[in-house]
Specification:
The protein is an all-alpha fold. It folds into 3 domains: 214 residues, no CATH class; 162 residues, no CATH class; 118 residues, no CATH class. It is built from 22 helices and 3 strands. Strands 1-2-3 form a 3-stranded antiparallel β-sheet, with helices on one face. A hairpin with a 5-residue loop joins strand 2 and strand 3.
Length: 529
């Protein structure tokens, strides 16, 4: 890139302009995926044209990037899309800092933190130092600056435009005739939005500058990197084996007593609840958060002790590993208990987004604990960060595959039909869900076996959803295209005649829909955990 610096600047500025085209006054949709895909293609073009080829492990990140980028315009559920945006950027970040080295699977948390700070520094400083190095290299080689260098023109325009705007405003105030000519000029060239244009030009330049920093960072930073803790520990072991054994042994003993005493309470089911006098809600809620908190901090304690404990003999290593494995196994028992409580609560009160997230989270944290046991036995503790990364990716991938809002609709309707002791279906909660829920609601509405009472609730929810969609901002530009919105539109159109039988009462708050039977259903959204 030093031989053809203008190519870098032209491409990154074009990407900055593309950002403006895709995002200025546009609702989120396919624009996010298009922009970052274009950035990835441009970066590969620049790096490969300089003979910089990525390591194979770095290429493993590209399918993950493609998956999460696609999810941003396929799913509409908030947590799913938030994680999709986050992990799209995260995969690109890892790719940028490990393009040449490809050792991201061997990184520890210390490595990731250090690489993140290094990338942030490159965003600020590297384009500037690159430009200075290019000029220095050309001067030393006796090469005259290219007559086609665009950067002086860009810098001149950026500095000149605000200055000219200020002086023009002052002169227009000083002379009426000049002021009128200036207004005519602005109207002729439609420059009444000049401040907006200047602002947009500035952020295009800023984005281009930052992208140049990322590409330049990828071109050098991971070539001959040294990973933290390879030659010597990040934190030298300073805690004695006896002290660590006492700490671990005490916690393990406490957990054993807790599990033994509570075993029947953990898995006793409804019989045990009746004996203790707890309601379903009390049984399910009581201690759930505490158990998950205990699991988190106990795992953190184990990892910390592993990093700072001296284990000088093979016997000491085996004893410590045995206590660590026992601790993690007991944590797994506690997580099974938390999972069982959640199942019981959902069987009666149904699924919500928070409960669904928690359900999936418990599965992945359980798998992380299993991986921790295996790594401890194999003495591969350094791989814990990679295991944590896989669990994080797994959680983020699970949500769009599951389709959270559609899952909630299907499970809650099934529970209403099949569970005799279940609380009545809360159809108003469906209104709070995203477009992902609409096809599932329509499919349920079209099911002949659906009881009439449930059928009416589902139709009422769809009537409210259609009403609120008609009031909202559609974001119909091509940049805002969203698969979930398109599928929901088609699904609603297929049952338009049926839900049109429900009348909307907008005279009060909240708005209500009136079923043909005369039953009123509020189109309200409220907190539901």
């Amino acid at each position: 890139m030093k031989n053809t610096p203008n190519k870098l600047w032209i491409i990154v500025l074009a990407l900055g302009w593309l950002f403006d085209l895709l995002f200025w006054e546009k609702a989120p949709g396919i624009n996010f995926a298009i922009f970052w895909t274009a950035c990835l293609i441009a970066a590969f073009y620049l790096l490969l044209s300089d003979g910089l080829r990525p390591q194979r492990p770095s290429l493993y990140l590209i399918p993950l990037f493609g998956f999460f980028a696609a999810v941003t315009f396929i799913r509409a559920e908030p947590m799913t899309t938030f994680l999709a945006y986050t992990f799209t950027m995260f995969t690109l970040t890892i790719l940028a800092v490990t393009y040449l080295g490809g050792r991201w699977m061997q990184y520890t948390l210390v490595d990731y933190i250090g690489k993140a700070f290094g990338l942030m520094g490159s965003l600020i400083a590297r384009p500037m130092t690159f430009a200075m190095n290019v000029r220095k290299t050309q001067a030393e080689a006796g090469v005259k600056p290219s007559k086609y260098n665009v950067m002086p023109i860009v810098r001149g325009l950026v500095i000149a435009l605000p200055i000219v705007a200020i002086f023009a405003s002052l002169l227009a105030s000083a002379d009426v005739v000049f002021g009128q000519r200036l207004e005519d000029f602005i109207e002729a060239f439609k420059l009444e939005d000049l401040p907006e244009y200047i602002f947009r030009m500035i952020y295009i330049l800023v984005i281009g500058y930052a992208l140049a920093g990322i590409i330049l960072h990828a071109s050098t930073e991971s070539k001959d990197e040294k990973l933290a803790g390879i030659d010597k520990p990040v934190i030298p072991a300073f805690l004695g084996f006896i002290e660590s054994t006492i700490i671990l042994g005490s916690v393990v003993a406490l957990f054993v007593v807790f599990v033994v005493i509570q075993f029947q309470y953990f898995f006793g089911g409804t019989t045990n609840i009746n004996v203790e006098g707890y309601t379903y809600a009390e049984y399910a809620r009581r201690g759930f958060g505490e158990l998950v908190t205990v699991a988190f901090f106990a795992l953190l304690m184990l990892l910390t002790l592993s990093a700072v404990t001296k284990r000088e003999t093979e016997t000491q290593r085996k004893v410590y590993s045995g206590l660590g494995v026992a601790l993690v196994l007991l944590l797994l028992v506690m997580l099974v208990s938390a999972y069982q409580r959640l199942n019981l609560y959902e069987a009666v009160y149904g699924f919500s987004r928070l409960r669904t997230y928690t359900h999936i989270f418990l599965v992945w944290i359980g798998l992380l604990l299993v991986a921790t046991i295996i790594l401890e036995i194999l003495r591969k503790e350094r791989m814990f960060t990679f295991a944590l990364l896989i669990a994080s990716f797994g959680f983020a991938v699970s949500l769009p595959i599951l389709n959270v809002d559609a899952f909630i609709v299907n499970q809650n309707i099934r529970r209403e039909v099949q569970e005799k002791n279940a609380v009545d279906l809360d159809s108003q909660y469906f209104i709070e869900l995203s477009d992902d829920a609409v096809p599932a609601l329509v499919k349920a509405l079209q099911t002949p076996a659906l009881p009439d009472s449930v059928h009416e609730k589902v139709a009422a929810a769809l009537a409210c959803i259609r009403y609120e969609r008609e009031l909202g901002d559609r974001g119909d530009s091509w940049q805002s295209f969203h698969v979930s919105r398109l599928v929901a539109d088609n699904a609603l159109a297929s049952v338009a005649d049926e839900i049109s039988r429900f009348k909307m009462d907008t005279s009060g708050y909240p708005v209500q829909t009136i079923a043909p039977s005369g039953e009123e259903y509020p189109c309200s959204q409220y907190y539901y955990d």
